[in-house]
Design brief:
The structure holds 2 protein chains of 2 kinds.
Chain A (H helix, E strand, L loop, with lengths): L3 E4 L2 E4 L4 E8 L5 E7 L6 E7 L2 E5 L6 E7 L2 E7 L7 E8 L10 E2 L3 E5 L1
Parallel strand pairs in A: 2-11
Antiparallel strand pairs in A: 1-3, 3-8, 4-5, 4-9, 5-6, 7-8, 9-10, 9-11
Chain B lengths: L2 E5 L2 E5 L4 E8 L5 E7 L5 E7 L5 E3 L5 E5 L4 E6 L8 E9 L4 E4 L3 E6 L1
Parallel strand pairs in B: 2-11
Antiparallel strand pairs in B: 1-3, 3-8, 4-5, 4-9, 6-7, 7-8, 9-10, 9-11
The chains are: A mainly beta, B mainly beta.
């Protein structure tokens, strides 16, 4: 069982919908991440939060809006998505942002389909 | 910029045979290297990591990897493949100048009965 929990597991949404993806960890990690993974591709970094503050935004379109309400929770708010945004969205956490010393712990992802 | 290259997008081995997944890195500074595994419909799981303490790194599930600076390689091996090893394997390097992990394109491991 993974220690990073993502909900929902699957999500189908229309291009005019607003939805949110949720991620939770209780390992005391202070860095949390959103990745996007297309089929047969490696994960692509979207956002990094360090101590609940956004520290990296990899030029992600504004239709994706991250939020970190507290050190255990990470949300990704979705609005006006396009079909090409369909992918597996992975949340990860690490003890700190120094990835060489604290590897990433991934959730099982949310499989998003935009119709 | 740091990068990793995984040779072979698909590798097939027979059950019980040696597993060898290749990874070469490019880095202008001493690298930190990782192998992650992804089973179907799951997230990535860390197999092992190299952080300069020892060149031969042992990981979970019987996997190990050897850091060879002269060859800029960090190949993953397992002496005897099991059906449960079938998965996608990602080699990754840490760019500790900005604390990002850069993933290779992945290698799909198939285990033949």
């Amino acid at each position: 069982d993974t220690e990073v929990t993502q909900t929902p597991k699957h999500l189908v949404m229309g291009m005019t919908n607003k939805k949110s993806l949720k991620c939770e960890q209780h390992m005391g990690h202070r860095a949390m991440y959103w990745y996007k993974q297309k089929a047969k591709k490696p994960p692509e970094l979207m956002f990094v939060y360090s101590y609940e503050k956004l520290s990296i935004n990899e030029s992600v379109p504004s239709r994706f809006s991250p939020e970190c309400p507290n050190s255990s929770l990470l949300n990704l708010h979705l609005h006006a998505l396009q079909p090409e945004d369909s992918a597996l969205y992975l949340c990860a956490s690490s003890q700190a942002r120094d990835s060489y010393n604290s590897p990433l712990h991934f959730g099982n992802g949310t499989r998003l389909t935009v119709t | 910029a740091q990068s990793v290259t995984q040779l072979g997008s698909h590798v097939s081995v027979s059950e019980g045979a040696l597993v060898l997944l290749r990874c070469n890195y490019s880095s202008s500074v001493p690298p930190y290297l990782f192998w992650y595994v992804q089973y179907p419909n799951q997230g990535l799981q860390l197999l092992l990591k190299y952080t300069s303490a020892a060149t031969l790194v042992k990981g979970i599930n019987g996997f190990e990897a050897e850091f060879k600076k002269s060859e800029t390689s960090f190949h993953l091996t397992k002496p005897s493949a099991h059906m449960s090893d079938a998965a996608e394997y990602f080699c990754a390097v840490s760019d500790h100048r900005d604390d990002k992990i850069i993933f290779g394109k992945g290698t799909r491991l198939h285990i033949l009965p």
